[in-house]
Amino acid sequence: MKTTYLLLCLLGIGSVSGAGQTKQPQKIGDFIESTSYNEHRRNATRSLQYTPDGDDFVCINGKNRFTRALYGSHTAFRLETSDRPVFAAYTKENPKHICFKLQTSGGTVALDSTEHCESRYTAGRRSYSLSDPAFGGGSLSITTWALPDKEGAIWQFNARNFKEFHPVLLASISEIRNSKLNRNGDMGADPADSFEAPLQPQQLQSFPVQIDGTLYILLENQELRTLTTAEGENLFKKAEAARSETASRIRIETPDPYFNTLGGTLAMAANGIWDGEVWLHGAIGWRMPLSGWRAAYTGDVLGWHDRARTHFNAYAASQVTEVPNTLPHPAQDSALHLARSVKKWGTPQYSNGYICRNPHRNNQMHHYDMNLCYIDELLWHFKWTGDLDYVRQMWPVITRHLAWEKLNYDPDNDGLYDAYACIWASDALYYNSGAVTHSSAYNYRANKTAAQLAEKIGEDPTPYRNEAEKILKAMNERLWLPDKGHWAEYQDFMGHKRVHESAAVWTIYHAIDSETANPFQAYQATRYVDTAIPHIPVTAHGLKENGYATIATTNWLPYSWSINNVAFAEVMHTALSYFQAGRADAGYKLLKSSVLDGMYLGDSPGNFGQISFYDAARGECYRDFGDPIGVASRVLIQGLFGILPDALNQQIILRPGFPDDWDKASVSTPDISYRFTRKEDTDTYHITQRFQTPLHPVLHVNARKEKIRSVKVNGVPATWQSIESAHGYPLLSIQAEGTSSTTITIEWEGAPLHTLAVQEPVITSNGKLALQIPSGASISQVYDPQSVLANHTVEATAFNAQIKGEPGHHTFFVYTHQGEMDWWQPVNIYIENVRESPSYTDFADIRPEKCRMVDFDRQLNASVTDIYQNEYLSPRSPYTTLQLPTQGIGEWCHPLLSATIDDSELRSLVHHDTFQTSLGIPFRLKEKGNNILFTSLWDNYPDSSTISLSGTASHAYLLMAGSTNHMQCHIANGIIRIHYADGTSQATELTNPDNWCPIEQDFYVDGKAFQATAPRPYRLHLKSGKVSRDLGKELNITGVYGREIEGGAGILLDIPLDHSKELKGLTLETLSNDVVIGIMGITLQ
């Protein structure tokens, strides 16, 4: 949901359905998502701001103010705390600033300015230890809580060793500095000084009170008052008992102190997004109910099954049940330029099965498809509880949902589903009725699980089983890329039906999380994340450990909100997919990178934030957000500790994801506790269940050594089995009876397991790979899913192969035997690109005297300024979908987006049909009338056009201009073919961002999340005629989002030609559905 919803409301879009628009089109970069309060911090050196100490996040003399919220009652009230004792009490109507001073014999000291301050955040409690020369050897400790049952807070002050006289506390409360908060005063979304006191407060309340040992102060009705010792102790004990009860729901103990703080912190954050009926989108910013997104996973994972059921019931009551689909596809909103569906009851989207955004209200049209996530969370609830009566109650909700999804997003019945704003990162995604991996995966798991539920409750499983099988077959045939080893982002429905191979992380983790992957696919797909998704190092002063890195969500350009961000929930969900793929070490490393980034290096201790410091556009933004809380619950409990219940089948799988060097770890939840210990060659797992009916534990562990001396369950010898896996270790399964207490002991013996290739060999295509097979190991089979082995031989001590295939990272698998163990292990290789590099550098050999301009005036079909003035109405999908707006720019969140292209200055520089560039290359351009030949798959222009050429040349210099967008990144938007008289030809693909750029904006490139080839292509500023490889710098364009080039810019290409051949023609063809590509000038050299 995120930032966009408010924007749409502000634009008057949120409730528009067919009315004419009178608002001026907005320019790119005008949006609230482009607002950042962290510009000054981009690329700044970080420090370890908080350190772990048991359950506590500790800092000494910290600087962050109003960044750690304490939640009490389930309302919007919160107490904002700081690294030093200065506070704010938030209510929407009357937020307050609260500060204290201490008057001693040595003077008066503001408590947020003492010489020494140690602060601790302990899952719902903030405490301080203060000292200062003015204290004369005395010390002051402060502890504060939000009240658990009403809006308010309590402070406990303890003064010690003030020898001469009792100190006097001066308490002050006033209005806050910023009375207009956009996001409830959330970090990074409102100015950092919002909760400071005004320079001249108008509502100041102050009073002195002597501290004689212990003092209690209460905030009630947004006013401060002192309490008697008895009153204070009573409220203090009540607040601490409530805090402790919530925090103790989840207890984690590991050898890594950075993880030991997380149990109680997670439970407290989850409590902060519970409003008494449903899980909210955020505890602070975006504190609102939503039927979907990932917050609701937290309920069952943290053992709040009662809350989970309340949440699911509230939204079951929000499902539309009495509005049949009476209006056909497509039902697009003409007022919003056809970018999205029209809000009208009876359309496919707003008909039976649709779940509205607010609880207990099924007559409210929102925009997102939150059905998918809500249903997925509900299906997990059944896995946790096994409650068949509740399955029967919710069965109509599930079946209506599945029918609604099919009607809307697979209307052509090919088994692959369009994605209509169905995940958190939806706000600029549009697939134009395409076949999308993440939505298809969601629907696969939903149908597969529905079939299983149907069998349990006596319903017919056949249609759901058949649909699941159909989806999986289609995903494997059309979206899985066997030579690349991952799923494509989507396949076009329109045009050439091309496959977009550059997948986002949500494509990978949803496909794995929805159980569409076999072990070989899961391993390969996570390797894609390793090698293709940008990794950003997590480093800081004071952080002794290194090698940590977080990830961007995509490698796409140009930037748009939610398209390429560093978002904690996305990072953690990717980490979960690593654990699910069996790659526990990689999952742990990525998870810890994210934990360090947000909770220890970040400005809010223990924060489950939305956006990372490393996000180029927003920086560190939002606190205790629903999605990261829900996903963190899963990655900690289901990933790191591997607790995977299947109460429907009376079993629970435990698949620990601990690092190899851990010798102990334990977790306790309301449902289950288990403790792992390792002593030399013996591993022991003590399991205690608290499910209503104990489940049968099934332990899945990686083999440590080549043999097992013994396996015992509750002291009795037991058997073990091997499970097919592909992550590099034998995966063993040990089953036990369902009792409340189980102890499983494994004794290992023999040699450690051998790895065939520890490092990734670098090999040329057609080169040879030679690997030594360690003594004691043997290989019996080879599985080469990416077809990189031209041939291979396996001998007793060596594996030899000849390599083929495209350059890049690849994987094949070998079936290994050692001792009692048999397993598939992956072999990762990197194939070098040894194709002969071009013998030229573009534009390095310009010879103006040998340049001749090509006259194709009669084929010019537009002015370059027309590009976003047109209406692109056909071809359009026959189905309701998210698609490019009719003006050819923007997306469904910004359907009225516009960009003004102005070539007036360029035209004024044209003399006698000639424009002379600063590079020395002349181009034939027109002073008036049409000045470009546009091609497009839109019917406005031809798909392709051929221009006659003659003579010979060594270079073709092209001046081009056109459109592209993030949905057309890393794919050829168009192609230029040079035809020779002898019938041969050569081709140059126009690929965003390598050599094709949007006319209206400059790419943001930082070498981190935003990467592009260097050197960048030359661009020509249409308004001034300036030519540069870095127009952003030349024109002083700043920021990440928008980066509008005033007037627009073309692009210059240098295509080397075979000067020994007679030229015949040049064909420009557009390949991507959304774009318009044009040639303004051709000059042959």
Quickly describe the structure.
With 1085 residues, the protein is α+β, with helices and mostly antiparallel strands.
Structure notes:
With 1085 residues, the protein is α+β, with helices and mostly antiparallel strands. An eight-stranded antiparallel beta sheet has the order 1-2-8-9-10-11-14-15. It is globular. The model is unreliable at 1-23 (pLDDT under 50).
What topology emerges from the helices and strands here?
Layout: H1 4-11, E1 51-53, E2 56-60, E3 68-70, E4 78-81, E5 86-90, E6 96-104, E7 107-110, E8 116-121, E9 126-131, E10 139-146, E11 152-160, E12 168-175, E13 205-210, E14 214-220, E15 223-227, H2 229-247, E16 251-253, H3 257-260, H4 262-272, H5 297-301, H6 305-316, H7 371-385, H8 388-409, E17 435-436, H9 437-457, H10 462-479, E18 480-481, E19 486-487, E20 490-491, E21 499-500, H11 505-513, H12 519-532, E22 535-537, E23 549-551, H13 568-580, H14 584-600, H15 626-640, E24 643-646, E25 651-654, E26 664-668, E27 672-679, E28 682-689, E29 696-702, E30 705-713, E31 716-717, E32 721-723, E33 731-735, E34 741-752, E35 762-764, E36 768-772, E37 777-783, E38 789-794, E39 798-803, E40 808-818, E41 821-832, E42 852-853, H16 904-908, E43 914-916, E44 922-924, E45 933-936, E46 944-948, E47 955-962, E48 972-980, E49 985-991, E50 1019-1021, E51 1027-1028, H17 1031-1034, E52 1049-1056, E53 1063-1070, E54 1076-1084
Parallel strand pairs: 25-29, 35-41
Antiparallel strand pairs: 1-2, 2-8, 3-4, 4-5, 5-6, 6-7, 6-12, 8-9, 9-10, 10-11, 11-14, 12-13, 14-15, 16-26, 17-20, 18-19, 20-21, 22-23, 24-25, 26-27, 27-28, 28-34, 29-33, 30-31, 30-34, 32-33, 36-39, 37-40, 38-39, 40-41, 42-54, 43-44, 45-54, 46-53, 47-52, 47-54, 48-49, 48-53, 50-51, 50-52
Helix pairs in contact: 2-4, 6-7, 7-8, 7-9, 8-9, 9-10, 9-11, 11-12, 11-13, 12-13, 13-14, 13-15
